[in-house]
Amino acid sequence: MMNHTLHFTEQEISERIDACKEKLYRLAFCYVKNEHEALEIVSEAAYKAFLSFKKLKQPQYFETWISRIVINCSIDHLKRERKYTYIEDTSQPLAAKESSLSLEEKWDLYEALDLLRPEDKAYIILKFFEDRRFSDMAEVLSLPENTVKTRFYRILNRLKKQLTQGKVDAP
Amino acid sequence: MTGKERFDNIEIPAGLSGIIQDARRRAHAKKRGRNVRRGSIVAAAACTAVLITANYPGAASAMSDVPVLGQIVKLLQIGGGGERTDGVSVTTQAHADTLDIHFDADGEQTSAAPAYTVQRQNGPDRLIFTFNGVRNLNHAQLEADIRRLAYVKDVYRDIILDDSAIRFVVELKDRTDYTVTEFKQPGMIRLSLFPAEKMPVSNKLYFIRSQEMKQGESLAILEEQYSAEGSGVVKTRSGSFAMVIGSFATQAEAEAFLEKLKARDDYTEPLTVDGWMSNERPQ
């Protein structure tokens, strides 16, 4: 039986972060779309991870845990550093391609991220870019799986309306 | 290209590992700082240790785990920062792969680092630190401390004409990367060295150079004369020094630039075009 209360050492945490650093950087980069700010976010997230790794009780969830820290740092960073225009404020639709294509093929979801509120971006990144299952997303976002599914489809519907009609519902 | 493909193609910056290791050090220092605050006796000892190491670098070797008490101002690889100062003394404290540069004036640590710049040059791979508003420096101690760093090949002073500034050159071993962190309250600069993720490809570069010279006023005047052209001082393979301008990607480019210099009224000291590998010293 796996020892679920095993603690990492600082060196082990360092090695684990190093092993997934590129993934963490890409995650942060999606929020800010520039190297300098993405590095700032990763720096802050790593700092918090090194400070609090003793609280991580289940080593097998390390990547889930550190991803959540990066997402929270990214949201904090965006709210602190910039005014953003998210989907409810936009009026210009992005051009859609052929209707027989999948959502990911129809629209550039990387660009569409810029239309989303900071707290909504993770749903698109985790699902479409990192290919996560809803159960994994629920772990990362610390939410029940059903809540994640509901929010994901709500965000997707708003995006679809925006991308096809330039209209969206109120949040 | 789909959004996922764009996501997968996000370029990873070379300094990412350094950023993470610096976060580790900050967290380590923060945790130690917490422990320090939890006990007044420990706190007093830690503060004393910082003051001792700042003023007496000889004690630094025994204090390699002293926490950083300052706040981070910036983290950079090239560029500069700090504040205008005058008459600041510089002391250093070396650990296995970090160098802490402390500053004090009138016997007290300064609240900010003095104005400084950091440059990186090839041929050989080296960092050039310049501190302004600094007059007192035990250069032998600084060299000794820097030589103790695991990733340093050599260190030497670049004597400049401005006697209120100091400049020194740190030659890096192959496959070394670095970050420079500026702190305030108190002011400190930390140089962190670590293995580079990728082995840089060495290539032949071309320079305009002087003949070999000894360190001193003549070399400093020559460097100053061509400062607008990005001049610098490099240690040669024989242990002497040369003023160099460049690098240039081709010999033709270097020769064309030299011709322009030769046409100047102040061109007196003979300069030549020379080429050597980006990770090596000149002859």
Task: Describe the protein's architecture and organization.
The complex is a heterodimer of chains A (171) and B (283). In chain A, 34% of the residues are buried. Chain A is built from nine helices and no strands. Chain A is mostly helical. In chain A, α2 (21-32) crosses α3 (35-52), α3 (35-52) crosses α4 and α8 packs across α9. Chain A folds into two domains: 1-82, Rna Polymerase Sigma Factor, Chain: A, CATH 1.10.1740.10; 83-171, Arc Repressor Mutant, subunit A, CATH 1.10.10. The longest helix of chain A is centred in the C-terminal third of the chain and has 21 residues, at 145-165. Chain B starts with a helix and ends in a 6-residue tail after the last strand. Chain B is 27% helix and 35% strand. Chain B has helices at 3-8, 16-38, 40-55, 139-147, 217-225, 251-262, and strands at 71-76, 79-81, 88-94, 98-105, 108-109, 116-121, 126-132, 134-137, 152-157, 165-172, 176-184, 188-195, 204-209, 232-235, 241-248, 272-277. In chain B, the strands form three sheets. In chain B, strands 1, 3, 4, 5, 8, 11 and 12 form a seven-stranded mixed β-sheet that branches. A five-stranded antiparallel β-sheet of chain B has the order 2-6-7-10-9, with helices on one face. A four-stranded antiparallel β-sheet of chain B has the order 14-15-13-16. Chain B has two domains: 16-195, Sandwich (Immunoglobulin-like); 204-277, Alpha-Beta Plaits (2-Layer Sandwich). The model of chain B is unreliable at 36-66 (pLDDT under 50). Chain B is α+β, with helices and mostly antiparallel strands. In chain B, 39% of the residues are buried. In chain B, a hairpin with a 2-residue loop joins β4 and β5.
Summarize the structure.
Chain A is mostly helical. Chain A has nine helices and no strands. Chain B is 27% helix and 35% strand.
